[in-house]
Amino acid sequence: MTQPTEIERLIEMMAKLPGLGPRSARRAVLHLVARREGQLGPLARQMQLVADTAQACERCGNIGTAALCPICADPARANGQICVVETVADLWAMERAGVFRGRYHVLGGTLSALDAVGPEELGIPTLLARIDDEAVREAILALPATVDGQTTAHYLADQLEARVTLTSLAQGVPIGGELDFLDDGTITAALEARKPL
Amino acid sequence: MTQPTEIERLIEMMAKLPGLGPRSARRAVLHLVARREGQLGPLARQMQLVADTAQACERCGNIGTAALCPICADPARANGQICVVETVADLWAMERAGVFRGRYHVLGGTLSALDAVGPEELGIPTLLARIDDEAVREAILALPATVDGQTTAHYLADQLEARVTLTSLAQGVPIGGELDFLDDGTITAALEARKPL
Questions:
Q1: Is residue B134 over pLDDT 80?
Q2: Per-residue pLDDT averaged across A138-166, rounded?
Q3: What is the SS3 assignment for B67?
Q4: What is the pLDDT, as a whole number, of residue A61?
Q5: CB contact under 8 A, A46 and B9
Q6: How many C-beta atoms surround the C-beta of residue B167 within 10 A?
Q7: Looking at residue A197, what is its pLDDT?
Q8: Least confident among A73-77, A160-164, B136-140, B175-179
């Protein structure tokens, strides 16, 4: 092959990233190799820094660079609300909206009989302990609207309903969404949850 | 912001890669952070290795890890043919086809009055020197079918026609291509260059 094995190996590794395939990985690597000083070196060092320092928050499962993530370390976020999400990406999406001022709990997955994922694998006992430790009054379930996501939400509701107020994200028409492009399920949910003007 | 600055910075750097934007960079970084030992660390080290060792071949401009790229270092490839390409990506594409057994010359761009790119910037004097040094008999111009690409091809033809046989890649219908999806220019070129069966 023409590419030296070191570069070929880097392309193979980049091609494993979500959103990149062999072609786009090759393009990205050529782009980087043409900018060795300005981009490739700094990117490699930043990656190594993150590889060395990133860790899951021991309390909520968010990704941070310390034992407690910035949210769990911030006393102002202990407002009695906890938002239960499936993934760290979901947590970041909630934070981008910037409205929720409580804390999170990242399950890291959903209950799945097929994949043998039970409550322990998802850290649900830890969540139950946090409800008491952090004097949580409201648990907001922000879980995906998939079968496994809803199974998990029901299970959590069973476990939590005696101890906290339970809420879940509203379902309906997205802001800026056109009815014509929405699936029937979303339209049905939005109609059933209609509100007086 | 929720993301620690180190991770935020890595996402920003990844988002500058071609084919990735802020969203897909975030997704890729989350994917990597969840696989710190298995993927992020090795990828960082491989990137650093490439940053430290990759260099342009001093003869042809291909990317390699030594002063001469594997093709220029291989005496069997000095077969009197030289293929002139615009970019290293084009060179790799030619190599993937696996048919051409000569050497390459990477211009690194095309002549462009607007961008003040002249023959020196493209290493054309080096190419002319190589024609003599390496006893080249045939120069295959594999330049893009853009205005600048064709201007460059004409300029090279002027410079080289007294010394070597000049050829260019055939234009026509791609293998597996359907006429219905081809532009008019390609169909016209393929018709004019039709061959007896």
A1: yes
A2: 92
A3: coil
A4: 93
A5: yes
A6: 13
A7: 81
A8: B175-179
Of all residues in chain B, the one with the smallest CA distance to A66 is: B4
When the pLDDT of each residue in chain B is averaged and rounded to a whole number, the result is 90
Gyration radius of chain B's alpha carbons: 21
Could you give the domains of chain A?
5-53 (1.10.8), 63-168 (3.40.1360.10)
Q: Which residues of B touch A39 (CB under 8 A)?
A: 13, 16
Which three-class secondary structure string do you get for chain A?
A: CCCCHHHHHHHHHHCCCCCCCHHHHHHHHHHHHCCHHHHHHHHHHHHHHHHHHCEECCCCCCEECCCCCHHHHCHHHCCCEEEEECCHHHHHHHHHHCCCCCEEEECCCCCECCCCECCCCCCHHHHHHHHHHCCCCEEEEECCCCHHHHHHHHHHHHHHCCCCEEEECCCCCCCCCCHHHCCHHHHHHHHHCCCCC
Q: Are the beta carbons of B27 and A19 separated by less than 8 Å?
A: yes
CB spacing of B49 vs A17 below 8 angstroms = no
Residue of B nearest to A88 (CA): B30
Q: Taking CB atoms and an 8 Å cut-off, how many pairs form between chains A and B?
A: 167
Q: Do A16 and B36 touch (CB under 8 A)?
A: no
A12 chain-B contacts, CB cut-off 8 A: none
Question: Taking CB atoms and an 8 Å cutoff, what residues of chain A touch B34?
Answer: 88
Q: Which residues of B touch A43 (CB under 8 A)?
A: 10, 13-14, 47
Q: Using the beta-carbon criterion (under 8 Å), do B33 and A63 form an inter-chain contact?
A: yes
Query: Which tops the pLDDT comparison, B136 or B183?
Result: B136
pLDDT at position B54 is 92
Which two tokens mark B74?
């291989």
pLDDT at A2: 54
Cβ-in-10-Å burial (0-12, 13-18, 19+) of A48 comes to middle
For chain A, the average pLDDT equals 90
* Contact list, A89 vs chain B (CB under 8 Å): 26-27, 30
Nearby residues of A132 by Cβ (< 8 Å), 6 or more positions away: A163
The rounded distance, in Å, linking the Cα atoms of A89 and A71 is 15
